[in-house]
Structures are given as structure tokens and as C-alpha cells.
Amino acid sequence: MSRVFLGPDRGHSLEARLAKATEALSVVPVVAILMIGTRLRAIQLEGGLGAPPLWAQLCMYGATLACFFRFLTAVCSFRSESEEALATAQGIRSTATAMLFVCCAAIAVSTLVMEAKSGDNEPLGTMMQCMLALTVAYFTETGVREVFAKVQKPEDPAPSYGSFSPTSQEEDLLALPARVSLQFPPMLCVLFVAIALRAVQLHLEPRFWAVCATYLTTLATVLQQLRSTMLFMKEGKGSLLGDEAAGPAFCPTDSDQKSKIFWSVTTCCIYAGTTLILLSVASMESKASAAASAPAPLSTAMCCVMALTVVYFLTYLLVMAGSLLRQFFGTWAQSTATGVQRALAFAPMLCVMMIGVRLRAMQIGVRDPPYWAQVCMVVATGAVITQVSCTILTESESGAGMVDKDAATKLMLLLLLGLRYAASAVLFVSVASLMISLAWMQPVLE
């Protein structure tokens, strides 16, 4: 909006502030899905009226407040000319970050130690276990980046929204899979909690091969995060999260054969495991009867989460494949990756919103949210997919080579650009409608 309404000159300063502030927002989807997972665990143990312990609920408020403070300090202090103001903002941000990490650790502990009042405790499911493991690994990596991050100074160049983290011009594109060490966990956590919600509501459980695939995917993701964390500590460069909220994560510069094999193997495991997990959703069997004839139909929220997961991982796969085949598609991959990241930035949080609406319906005893809310889910999902598609078609054709295009090509690119902006507006309206449905949803009186 700063670009559209303020123009490239006046909007640049605001855009730079907001681009920098996205670092503070990059952890929000993981924080939110951790809260939803804790709430789901309480419902699993106590039914629709179950709630986490009071101290865990207070930690949720504390984590939310900390996220707001991190964002506000980043917006207000970026490129400030006063060293004193920078020091004050950094102190506030550090305090808020410590508060955020402590509160999230307490929320995760509450999920593990929560017990039913009746004493009849169900074991923590596979999906919830893996969600907690990914959350711990994610916050470990972000915590290390907080400690070793280079503080932004007034003379530093302003970041561009969705841009790559600073790397050498001679960087090996085979290292691209390492960029996603902070991109995959939020989407995987969302998928795991969505499946856990379906399992709790319909009393289902994943099959053995799906459980193995879940553990495999989690292990590969955690290994990537540990490797990326060690490389970040070793290299010691880059900002807090690069532009992880909307751009690729920090890219390690090691290009030895062992490193290439490591990233290739772990990435293949993540994709293979995620594929099996998605296939297992419709084949989950009832806990009461393993011989259940027909699986329960998928909810609209579950279908949308699965669709966004497929688009999310498939888009990354296309970009990584283009990088690996750089002799043929390297230029396309480099020009497209940044725009695709911007288009996918809302996918994890959109999934969190849809799961929250679905969980609210479950809490008040309704199987599905209102029909219009389900329509908003489908429309929002379609908007994200439209944005991604338009970005893939337009980003690689824009830039300096645009002047050499014929009139028909330019017209097509302008139409796609307009469609992308329209999809963005539809996405915001749909999310606002989901928030309204979350607040106004009422139980159905029989």
C-alpha cells in the first residue's frame, strides 16, 4: 500500500520501516499455532469446555503483547538518527524477545504436562509431538539469530520487502534448499495441528505409515534447522532473520559436496514425508473401529489447509528445481523466488486463521463454521493461489527487459499485475470476514 498510495519516493521510507519490521512478525504464525495446539490439547482432555491452565493462558497474553512490542519498536526505531533512540529501542526489543521466548516455552510445557481432571489422560498424539518438536527447533534457531544478529545502523542500506538476504554474487545456487530452514516449519506445524484437530473431533488416528512419515519429516526439518543454526553462528553475518517473513532465509555459503548431499537428502525426505502425510488425511481410521467402511469427509478448513500446503511446497520445489537446473532455468529461479516469497508470506497465517475458526466451531459444538465463513476460506485460498500464479508468470518477465517486449506481452503482464493486486484485496477482505465469523459464531439451537 505504501508503494501504491504514496508513490516510489515518499513510500520508500515507510516501506523500509515495514520491511525491517517483518523480522518481528516472522515468528507470529508459529506462536499462534502453538497456542492453538495447546487449546486443542485441553479440548482433547476435557471436551469442548476444556481450557489450558490459567498460567498458560496468561503466558499466551504475554507472548501476544511481546510480539506487538517487537513490531512497534522495529517500525519506530529503524533508520533513526539518534543513537540513544536506537539503544532504547534495542533494549525494549530484547526485553520483549526474552518475554516472548519465556512465554512460548511455558505454553509448550503446559501442553506436555496438562492432565484431565478425571485422571483419564489420552496420550499426546504424533502430530502434536512433532509440532512441539518443530516449534522448539524453530525458536532455537531464531533465538540464536537474535543473539548473533547484526544490529541495524542508520547508515546501513534500507531493505526491500521480500528481498534476498545479502550473499555473495558467486553463491552456489545448489545451496538454495538451505534458504528454507525457517520457511518449512511454520507450514508443517499448521498442517500437523490441522490433522490433529480432525483426529480429535472425529476420533480418528493416523495409520502407521503416516506416523513414520510424520517423524521422518520432522527429523529432516529439525536437522536442517540445526545445520542452518551452526552455519549462521560460524559465518556470523546477515541481519536477524534476513527477510524470512517474506524472503528466503539466510543462505550458508559452504558449497562442499557433503553439504550439498545433506541439503538434498533432507529436502527430499521433507517432500516425501509431507506427500505421504497429505495422502494419509483421508485414510485415517476410527479409534473405535479400525474396520470403519468410509472415512469421514474432509472439512472445508482441512481442504484449504491441504491445498495451501501443496501450493506452498510445490512452489518452493519449482524454484529449487530451477536453481538446480541453473543452466536452463537459473535466471528464472532467481527472478521469481523473491516475488513468490511475497505471495506465499500469508499462507501460514491464513491457515492458522482457518484452523482457529474451525476450532471455535468445535468448541461450541458445531461441526462446521457457517457456510459463508467456509466460502471465505475457499475464496482466500484461491486468492493466495492466484497471487502465486501471477507472480510466477510476471516476475521473470519484469525488470530491465520489459522495454524490449511487444505491446501484447506488456498488456498481458499489466493484466496479470492487476489480477495480483485484486487477489491481494480479496485476500484481506476474506481474512477480515473470517475474523468476524470467529467472533460472532453461535451454537445451533435444536
UniProtKB/TrEMBL annotation:
Superkingdom of origin: Eukaryota
Organism: Durusdinium trenchii
Membrane-traversing stretches: 21-42, 54-75, 96-114, 182-200, 261-284, 296-319, 339-359, 371-394, 414-440
Swiss-Prot/TrEMBL keywords: Membrane, Transmembrane, Transmembrane helix
Protein name: Protein RFT1 homolog
